[in-house]
Amino acid sequence: MDPYKYRPSSAYNSPFFTNNSGTPVYNDNSSLTVGSRGPVLLEDYHLIEKLAHFERERIPERVVHARGASAKGFFEVTHDISHLTCADFLRAPGVQTPLIARFSTVIHERGSPETIRDPRGFAVKFYTREGNFDFVGNNFPVFFIRDAMKFADVIHAFKPNPKTHIQENWRILDFCSHHPESLHAFTFFYDDVGVPTDYRHIEGSSVNTYTLINKAGKAHYVKFHWKPTCGVKCLLEEEAIKVGGTNHSHATQDLYDSIAAGNYPEWKLYIQTIDPDHEDRFDFDPLDSTKTWPEDILPLQPVGRLVLNRNIDNFFAENEMLAFSPGTVVPGISYSDDKMLQGRVFAYGDTQRHRLGPNYLLLPVNAPKCAHHNNHYDGFMNFMHRDEEVDYFPSRYDPVRHAEKYPILPTVCSGRRERCIFDKGSDFKQPGERYRSWAPDRQERFVSRWVNALSDPRVTHEIRSIWISWWTQADKSLGQRLANRLNVRPSI
Ligand code: HEM
């Protein structure tokens, strides 16, 4: 071992105790005191280091998605989509890529129960030969808002009241009563899928629209969808109370135990694509994250499968310090002008520089597994071994060169600077269709959850009327049912 390239690892564990500088510790039980009863000496370096380190054991939790579980595995291409993308890891059926996945709830804290009604995060870091590709999606295929400008607001409204620290329906319904586009996400939130059985039985969706680019430079809008091979399962209210009351980490435990028992969770990956030249053919905007793409006109195309076959070794290193970003893409996959996605491309790296520090991408779980090189690496906690004398580019002393050019988005951008809302498509059509696709008992549970939410004593008559009028526009009978149960006259 070259001592100067040494990186701390449990592989180098000493058989006896040392302090963090490697000095032997002959007593880890008793502080160094004057006489047998104290006082304690400040020169007890080991004690001070032990206390000081403990006091710093926590890092800021994720501002959203703080509660989560992760596991490792691989992705295997099963269908050729090389006509759509030049992404190396999707180059041919049979190609496998190692990965780590993290599932999460969105709103509550790191230690909160996993039975709460909330979207579930579905994030996958693919360690490809051309760098990492982070898929950062949710189990619901749509989001409550469609402009990054409103993200902090919608999250604040769903998070606990800043005064009481309790999640309160009146705050959610108040904020969203300004956003009819949220209606569609509520057909998932207050549906049975709002409380999944565990992480193995959830779907995943990119929600946002990305772009696939092929070797010739042709781009297609794309949405990604994960379907669990064991099916989608949910907990109804009584079951959720029972499960959550018995074990507040039941989903983390289920994931861990399933993998440990060799019952490996698996998902199939599908895509839907739209040729950007045809984007005006639809009655919705393909860049609107509150709309789904109807599968009858834009069918799901199979791509591959994801298998989780290895548990993590350490929760802190491989869950807390795991850092995803929708900005982390590989050649052949790019962003779209989706206004939510554009905000996200910035926000994740930004939060991780705060949460983990500027060198968060050097942490083993986040670092690419392929060769990588650039000159931005100093700053807090740079532990990468470097011995070059040239840390600028270009240089006649350093043979490093630009990577080979790969196709980038061919789109031409033009237009006036504007701040505006989407002007295409109805916010009521898709929610109404989804409600009508359900069996009567599922509709009834949805109505009951809405009646319960709208019965919050702090929901005003005005807010209640807005929601009833919106649901009436989505589906007349649904609006009528809510109005009857709440004793309100539906008015559009
Ligand atoms: C403008 C909109 C959004 C912003 C600004 C935003 C911001 C964030 C931030 C700051 C985090 C914490 C990251 C960390 O500390 O590691 C996060 C986590 C996450 N977000 Fe978003 N988010 C947005 C929309 C969305 C949407 C639409 C989805 C689903 C498609 C999503 C899925 C996730 C997931 C799954 C995580 C957890 C990743 C993990 O497991 O570490 N977010 N988001």
From TrEMBL:
<dbReference type="Pfam" id="PF00199">
    <property type="entry name" value="Catalase"/>
</dbReference>
<feature type="active site">
    <location>
        <position position="138"/>
    </location>
</feature>
<dbReference type="InterPro" id="IPR010582">
    <property type="entry name" value="Catalase_immune_responsive"/>
</dbReference>
<dbReference type="GO" id="GO:0042744">
    <property type="term" value="P:hydrogen peroxide catabolic process"/>
</dbReference>
<dbReference type="GO" id="GO:0020037">
    <property type="term" value="F:heme binding"/>
</dbReference>
<dbReference type="GO" id="GO:0046872">
    <property type="term" value="F:metal ion binding"/>
</dbReference>
<dbReference type="InterPro" id="IPR024711">
    <property type="entry name" value="Catalase_clade1/3"/>
</dbReference>
<dbReference type="InterPro" id="IPR018028">
    <property type="entry name" value="Catalase"/>
</dbReference>
<keyword id="KW-0479">Metal-binding</keyword>
<keyword id="KW-0408">Iron</keyword>
<dbReference type="GO" id="GO:0042542">
    <property type="term" value="P:response to hydrogen peroxide"/>
</dbReference>
<dbReference type="GO" id="GO:0009845">
    <property type="term" value="P:seed germination"/>
</dbReference>
<dbReference type="GO" id="GO:0005634">
    <property type="term" value="C:nucleus"/>
</dbReference>
<keyword id="KW-0575">Peroxidase</keyword>
<keyword id="KW-0576">Peroxisome</keyword>
<keyword id="KW-0376">Hydrogen peroxide</keyword>
<feature type="active site">
    <location>
        <position position="65"/>
    </location>
</feature>
<dbReference type="GO" id="GO:0005886">
    <property type="term" value="C:plasma membrane"/>
</dbReference>
<feature type="binding site" description="axial binding residue">
    <location>
        <position position="348"/>
    </location>
    <ligand>
        <name>heme</name>
    </ligand>
</feature>
<dbReference type="GO" id="GO:0004096">
    <property type="term" value="F:catalase activity"/>
</dbReference>
<dbReference type="InterPro" id="IPR020835">
    <property type="entry name" value="Catalase_sf"/>
</dbReference>
<keyword id="KW-0560">Oxidoreductase</keyword>
<dbReference type="InterPro" id="IPR011614">
    <property type="entry name" value="Catalase_core"/>
</dbReference>
<protein>
    <recommendedName>
        <fullName>Catalase</fullName>
        <ecNumber>1.11.1.6</ecNumber>
    </recommendedName>
</protein>
<dbReference type="InterPro" id="IPR024708">
    <property type="entry name" value="Catalase_AS"/>
</dbReference>
<comment type="similarity">
    <text>Belongs to the catalase family.</text>
</comment>
<comment type="function">
    <text>Catalyzes the degradation of hydrogen peroxide (H(2)O(2)) generated by peroxisomal oxidases to water and oxygen, thereby protecting cells from the toxic effects of hydrogen peroxide.</text>
</comment>
<dbReference type="InterPro" id="IPR002226">
    <property type="entry name" value="Catalase_haem_BS"/>
</dbReference>
<dbReference type="GO" id="GO:0009514">
    <property type="term" value="C:glyoxysome"/>
</dbReference>
<feature type="domain" description="Catalase core">
    <location>
        <begin position="18"/>
        <end position="401"/>
    </location>
</feature>
<dbReference type="Pfam" id="PF06628">
    <property type="entry name" value="Catalase-rel"/>
</dbReference>
<keyword id="KW-0349">Heme</keyword>
